[in-house]
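Re: the request from the purification team.
They wanted to know what the chain is likely to look like in 3D before they choose a buffer screen. I agreed to run a prediction and write the result into the notebook, where they can find it.
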Amino acid sequence: AVAKDLAMQVAATAPLAIEPSQIDAALVAKEREIARELTIKEGKTGDMLERIVEGKLNKFYKENCLLQQVFVKDNKTPIDKHLAATAKTLGLSDLRVAAFHRLQLGQ
């Protein structure tokens, strides 16, 4: 059941990686630069600029990293917390996602 739920999550949300450290550094740098440009256009500067950029980058991670995504079945719990709760319920020390592969036909 857990594997099926995770498969549905991957199919529905198309994550780029399991966790932030697995996302290509060039993509992260590009997202950071886009966030910086948008924030500068909003008129933010200095320390506030950096905090906003980091917040936007964290939002990018929450949308694109499987373990940080909100579980589509309840729209509240992040996947990492859902796995921890499920492991506890099953009497296991933990549950981990080692890898996933997503196939898509067409666009």
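For the purification team: Helices lie at 2-13, 25-41, 46-64, 79-90.
Please add any questions underneath this entry.
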